[in-house]
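ESCALATION

Customer reports they have been waiting on this structure for their group meeting. Please prioritize. Original submission:
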Amino acid sequence: MDPRNLLDRAGLPPEGRVERLTGGDTGRVWRLGRYVVKTHPNPPPGLFPTEARGLWALAGAGMRVPRVRWVGEEGLVLDYLPPGPDDWAALARMIARLHASTVPDYGADDPVFLGRFALPAGRSADGSEFWVHKRIWPLLDAVRARLGELAGTVERFVLDFDWPVEGPVLIHGDLWHGNVRMGAEGPALIDPSTWHGERAVDLAMMQLFDGFPEAFWAAYEAVRPVPPEVREALPAYQLYFLLAHVLFFGGEYVGGVRRVLQRYGYL
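Update from on-call: job pushed to the front of the queue and completed.
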């Protein structure tokens, strides 16, 4: 779809030339002047409304995010955030505030998308049960054929593992460095997969592909220290994202799954 059509549906005037932006692993992203337009050639039902709800949830928790101008099944129109200087300490304080936003239970009232993969709705007071059966299990089932005999070992590991419990908070849900925008008004979060879970989910993704320098971690730890048992469990939490990468990008990420199992003595 021509992104200018979505600006028209949003009742917004045409804005400059159409510029394709990098990123957008789950769709196509353009800048048109003051706006960013996201589309997909064949979006799963609910993909863009779910992203908009995530941005609204993060904004409600005091996070800086791009303003949602329009959303529909066809796409999403957001404000463009002009770039600014890196401020890792400010980002750390912002995410620490997010991870202090305690909530009564785990999950979400609506389905959640990790990339373009839909995860089930539902809530639970049991964080480990929810994590294993509503987050890990759907992804594991989707990639069993690619994992081969390794799938059974992953299944055994996630059932055996003693997942640490700090309590549910609002999480971004896909917090790699590409989903952080250093803007002129300060750091902002984009492309969320929000639900109520352990902050270890966010911390695990932040450490999986690096991208967050020591200045970030020092500032985060100063506000919200990470207990040793949570730190030790972060590679286990990374299985969630590694399974998603196996699904989206293929067998090159199976090695990452294998390394997690080796770390905890399952291979």
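Sent to customer with the following note: The mean pLDDT is 95.
Escalation resolved.
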